[in-house]
Amino acid sequence: MEKTTEWKVRSFRPEDLPACRRLYHEGLLGGELAANDTGLDLDDIPSNYLNKPGNHFWVAENEAGEVVGMVGVQHWEEESAGQVRRLRVARDHRRRGVGSALVETALQFCNENQYLKITLESYMDREPALKIFDKFRFRHERSRMVGTKELLYFYRDLYVGSPRALKGDELHSGPGGMGG
Questions:
Q1: Cα within 13 Å of Cα(154), Cβ side
Q2: Sheet order of strands, 81-89 included
Q3: Phi/psi class of residue 69: alpha, beta or left (left: φ > 0; alpha: ψ in -120 to 50)?
């Protein structure tokens, strides 16, 4: 029996903005802005993500045309890195592969743009997101307290070329055949 997908990932369009704001607010821990995040980048997604080379923003849309997820990538030129930002999935669409598809889209974009590394951050309280990061082999780099919450920093190397295994490591490719 073939699995049917009830959503698709596509580039952000201006009419998606209200749904993206809703997803952002739905994902706030305790319903409050974090001390290190104002969410201002979402007020103008085209300027912050679409009109700058190396940046992009996607949404997951269900069959009814509703936005049920989102993710963005911002390029950090000095580090040749991309930062995954604003990963959100509507509560009623979680555990259906939406978050994984959004992360895979972001990873593919970073590979195509030849970034050497991808970074992201998340609060410890976001267990579903932490599971996705583990699935895509992001590594925990460090943590710090922001107010009363633990903020975790993750990265994934995307070096071009043939990776060499360290003693005891296995070589394998990641999602979609991407190494790393």
A1: 21
A2: 7-11, 56-62, 67-76, 81-89, 117-123, 149-157, 139-146
A3: beta
Q: Select the CATH number that applies to the domain covering 7-177 from these four: 3.30.70.1290, 3.40.1080.10, 3.40.630.30, 2.40.340.10.
A: 3.40.630.30
The whole-number mean pLDDT for each consecutive block of 10 residues of the chain, a chain of 180 residues, reads: 70 96 80 59 92 95 95 88 93 90 96 93 78 92 86 85 44 38
Token pair of 29 as six digits: 């821990």
- Distance of alpha carbon 27 from alpha carbon 37, whole angstroms: 12
Q: Which residues contact 125 (CB under 8 A, 6 or more apart)?
A: 29, 149
pTM, two decimals, is 0.80
Query: For residues 83 and 85, what is the distance between their CA atoms, to the nearest angstrom?
Result: 6
Where are the chain's structural domains?
7-177
- Closest C-alpha to 148, from 26, 23, 27, 29: 29
The count of residues in the chain is 180
The Cα–Cα gap between 21 and 24 comes to 5
CA distance linking residue 108 with residue 96, whole number of Å = 20
